[in-house]
Amino acid sequence: RDQPRSRGLGDVYKRQVLENDDFAILQATTVKAPIFLHQQKNGKYVALLLSCTHQKCTVSVTPDKLVCPCHGAKFDKQGTVLQGPADKNLLALELSEQGNEIVISLP
What's the pTM? Predict the structure, then answer.
């Protein structure tokens, strides 16, 4: 897949990373956990850090939700907690769309 290029405080991804799917798993060099980039049905994008808010385990992507393999927390594709033990939503990263690029601001 497309490798990001750095631009100031964010990583830049070409929209083609989502060409065949409504999501992509991205790995930035400055954060440990992968990033879930998802195009919602309304066409807007969401970028979530796949680090469980319970104990920081890496969250897995399933066809309909995001699941923490460590203790079973579940999140929807917008990062909202569906089932504990996590009690906080996944970290949503700020992003902007610039032409055919998506710029994700990293924590």
Answer: 0.80
Using DSSP's 3-state secondary structure scheme, residue 4 falls into: coil
Say which DSSP state 33 is in. S
Q: Which two tokens stand for residue 44?
A: 């807007």
- pLDDT digit string (tens) for 23-60? 888 888 778 899 999 988 888 889 999 999 999 999 99
Euclidean distance between CA atoms 84 and 17, whole angstroms: 31
- Burial (CB count <10 Å: 0-12, 13-18, 19+), residue 69: exposed
What letter would DSSP give residue 51?
Answer: B
